[in-house]
Amino acid sequence: MSVDPMTYEAQFFGFTPQMCMLRICIAFQDYLFEVMQAVEWVILKNLDGIPDCEISPVQIHRCTEKFLSFMKGCFDNLFGKMEQLFLQLILCIPNILLPEDKYKEIHPYSEEEFQHLQKEIDQLQEKYKTELYTKQTLLAELEEQKIVQAKLKQTLALFAELQNVGRDHGTSDFRESLVSLVQNSRKLYNITDDVEKESKRLKIS
Amino acid sequence: GATVSRVKLLDTIVDTFLQKLVAAGSYQRFTDCYKHFYRLQPEMTQRIYDKFITQLQTSIREEVSEIKEEGNLEAVLNALDKIVEEGKAQKEPAWRPSGIPEMDLHSTIAPYFLQQRDTLQRCVQKQEAENRQLADAILAGRKQVEELQLQIQARQEAWQALHREQRELLAVLREP
Amino acid sequence: FDEIIVDIATKRKQYPRKILECVIKTIKAKQE
């Protein structure tokens, strides 16, 4: 006969219903025996007080045993029924979930689902790490870009300064100034040339 | 119909047990067993029997009270009544431990893992969006660097052209 | 046998909560 360990009941009560019934049974039995002992003791006490009594203590003891075995039989039979009622109606957890197991109802999770969920979490963690590394890389490049742009702007500023130098000295545009310089120097050159020719001519004359 | 509380049921069952035990151990039965003594002292027998019954019932009732006291049984049974009442709607067989703790634990832990997964998903999405912005900023920055380089190249070429012209000029100027 | 049943039942009642506390701590630590 397979024993129902009633573990779910034990989870709720903190003891097994069978153990509880055993405890009650033993206690009740002890009382029955004790009370029977007391009955026998009182009767023997009474008989002591009767002179030339024919009834011997052994007889009384036999009577007690007879009554007790009868009572014990009834007791066992009745207690069996009581135990059944206790285990079926009182010390049993019917088709419900205990509060600490509420999750089972809301989230019944099979092994596969749980593995899948854990795998999903691991993948997301990896993905998140990757994104964080990407962020570091992007930030690093942004930093680099800032430096490069600053350098390039610095170079451009130099060019602009050069430009300005020309302007500060009255020439709007460097190229034109250079062209006009070339033309002026050519004119100067020609004038020098002419002057030299004239002075030679004068010397000769 | 009306659900009887477990405590009341317990008391009723114990009372019934006692009634039947007393009915079984009737005075008739008692005197049959102690017939010599009964013939000798019928009143005393009656008194002893009454005392026997009273004492037995008292002892058993006290024991039940003690057990109720010890295991705080009334409160526990009332709590169970309440849980059963709340779970009455349960139609399909209620979950029970499978005997494989890891499996049983999954349902308890799952809500927290689901929460963790959702949080991670949000973090990943947020970080992806942030990285997209950073990537856009980088592309714009690269474009700007390119433009700056082009500008510098243009300036450099202009200066180089100028330099060439300068050299030509000098060459011209230097002509004998 | 009875003690084993009570022991298992007690663990079934208490351990999920304890394990849950550890799991929650672990998840929080990971997030941090």
Automatic annotation (TrEMBL), chain A:
Cellular component terms per the entry's GO annotation: MIS12/MIND type complex; nucleus
InterPro entries the UniProt entry points to: Centromere_Mis12 (IPR008685)
Coiled coil stretches, renumbered: none
Signal peptide extent: none
Major site of localization recorded for this protein: nucleus
Location(s) in or outside the cell: Chromosome, Centromere, Kinetochore
Keywords: Cell cycle, Cell division, Centromere, Chromosome, Coiled coil, Kinetochore, Mitosis
Record GO biological process: cell division; kinetochore assembly; mitotic sister chromatid segregation
Keyword tRNA-binding: no
Quaternary structure note: Component of the MIS12 complex composed of MIS12, DSN1, NSL1 and PMF1. Also interacts with KNL1, CBX3, CBX5, NDC80 and ZWINT.
Family listed: Belongs to the mis12 family.
Protein name, entry field: Protein MIS12 homolog
Natural source organism: Otolemur garnettii
Automatic annotation (TrEMBL), chain B:
Gene Ontology BP terms: cell division; chromosome segregation
One GO cellular component, as annotated: nucleoplasm
Superkingdom assignment: Eukaryota
UniProt-annotated location(s): Chromosome, Centromere, Kinetochore; Nucleus
Any GO molecular function: leucine zipper domain binding
Entries under Pfam families matching the protein: Nnf1 (PF03980)
Assigned keywords, A-Z: Cell cycle, Cell division, Centromere, Chromosome, Kinetochore, Mitosis, Nucleus
Protein name: Polyamine modulated factor 1
Protein's organism: Otolemur garnettii (Small-eared galago)
Phylogenetic placement of the source organism: Eukaryota, Metazoa, Chordata, Craniata, Vertebrata
